[in-house]
Design a protein that fits this description.
- The complex is a heterodimer of chains A (203) and B (136).
- Chain A is α+β, with helices and mostly antiparallel strands.
- In chain A, 33% of the residues lie in helices and 18% in strands.
- Chain A has a single domain, classed as Glutaredoxin.
- By secondary structure, chain B is of the alpha/beta class.
- Chain B has one domain: Glutaredoxin.
- The mean pLDDT of chain B is 95.
- Classes of the chains: A alpha+beta (203), B alpha/beta (136).
């Protein structure tokens, strides 16, 4: 009996591990449950998805200080937070970059930038990069929108024009949030964008 | 200046020309660090059947201030084109469905043998040469 249990445990572990590797490679798939985390924010406190009270959805944005694409979207991310926080969808920004490879993205500089640019949302440091890997994040900025049950419902870009906010034709993320709030199908659940590759720790 | 249809043309190529297509930007540090790999490649392989194309994803407003000076300083004018598309979601999948959109990224194509190899992230000269050696 013991042997069977061990064998089953072994197979279960193997599958869980394989699944984690697939997510790291291809990213969290639509419908998959997003893993929770416990990360230090610029307020010095630890934050998790579970610690967000009355969330109607969870909007995780992998972003950082140094990346020009993240900077180009900074004000748009702030605007989205302000628009939807009252409806139970706050932005949770996570910096996945290694602060040694990119000093501009270290913890102290996160605190500084958030202060200078008046971030109204959580800005957390994924210091060991395990959360970026668990979500399959590859670049900044990259968004993951989860429903109240933490199931992924949208991932990818914020909108369709990185350079000129005024020329945006399709606000992919906002449309996804609106569709979700209206209990409608999200017509474009996956989009792609150019971004800065995550600065992984040197092996 | 190129548009998304140029990617479709390269991907649909049936000739024995090898296309080494790199996606980069002057604002992307690892991309800039990788550029000498391609410079070395076109110095070492003066084969007209190997075309090295560096597709810039710079901001359009930075062409004159960032891209042009960099291209001049590195003497890579004949290899650089600018991706003139506002929405990357329209063309990223045309390059490779597995590409997240993070740069740098490189694709090597040889249409006549249906070869296409995509790589997300920085390539070393050795890695790039190993890909070429498979198809030359």
């Amino acid at each position: 009996m013991k042997k069977y249990v061990l064998a089953i445990l072994f197979i279960a572990c193997f599958h869980a591990n394989q699944n984690a590797q697939e997510i790291e490679k291809a990213g969290l798939a639509i419908g998959q449950i997003a893993p929770d985390f416990n990360l230090k924010g610029i307020d010095g406190k630890m934050h998790s998805l579970a610690s967000i009270k009355n969330a109607k959805a969870y909007l995780v944005v992998f972003t950082c200080n140094h990346c020009p694409f993240s900077q180009a979207y900074e004000n748009r991310i702030i605007a989205i937070h302000k628009k939807f926080v009252g409806r139970g969808i706050p932005v949770i920004a996570i910096n996945p970059n290694d602060g040694e490879r990119e000093p501009e993205d270290n913890y102290d500089n996160m605190v500084k930038r958030a202060k200078e640019h008046h971030y109204p949302f959580l800005y957390l440091l994924d210091a060991d990069q395990s959360i970026a890997k668990a979500y399959g994040a590859k670049r900044t900025p990259q968004v993951f929108l989860m429903d109240a049950n933490k199931k992924l419902i949208y991932t990818g870009a914020i909108d369709d024009n990185f350079e000129e906010p005024k020329d945006v034709k399709n606000k992919y993320l906002e449309n996804a949030i609106k569709s979700y709030l209206a209990q409608q199908t999200i017509t474009t659940p996956i989009t792609k964008a150019i971004g800065c590759g995550i600065k992984w720790k040197k092996k | 200046m190129i548009h998304a249809n140029q990617l479709t043309n390269w991907k649909a190529s049936v000739s024995d020309t090898i296309y080494v297509i790199n996606f980069w930007a002057t604002w992307c540090k690892p991309c800039v660090e990788e550029i000498p790999v391609f410079v070395k490649l076109f110095k070492n392989y003066s084969d007209p059947k190997i075309k090295i194309i560096l597709v810039s994803n710079d901001f359009k407003k930075h062409i004159q201030t960032h891209l042009v000076p960099f291209v001049r300083a590195n003497n890579i004018a004949s290899n650089v084109v600018f991706m003139d598309e506002p929405n990357p979601n329209d063309w990223i999948e045309l390059v490779d469905p597995n590409w997240s959109g993070a740069i740098p990224a490189t694709i090597v194509i040889k249409g006549s043998i249906g070869f296409s190899e995509f790589h997300e992230g920085v390539l070393s000269y050795k890695e790039l040469e190993a890909i070429l050696n498979k198809i030359r």
